[in-house]
Design goal:
The chain has one domain. It is globular. The chain is mainly alpha-helical. It has a two-stranded parallel ribbon. Helices cover about 50% and strands about 5% of the residues.
Length: about 110
Amino acid sequence: MVFNEDSRVKIPSILHLMQLGYEYLSLKNNEWDVNTNIFTEIFNKQIAAINPGLSESEIKRFYDEVSLSLENEDLGRAFYNKLIDQSAKKLIDFDNFEENNSFHVVTEGSVQ
């Protein structure tokens, strides 16, 4: 048997995450924002579920805020702070963790 990165690392990692409840997303069948690597359709759906009452324009503005936080050259601190912030619009629902959050895994994608 030939061992390589796929057989030793990538495939076992993806399978393990799927056993933990992550959903595998094929890069062939999905679209995402190449600037942020965010799957915008999933983002919009989940933000609406986690933050009921937000309008489409508020979700769009929130997406723009998240995008800007990803551009900071602060080693991800701004995004991390947005991720854990529970005072306003939430990216993660810590109160109903299993019910309202969705987790996905993909294989390697290109980063721009």
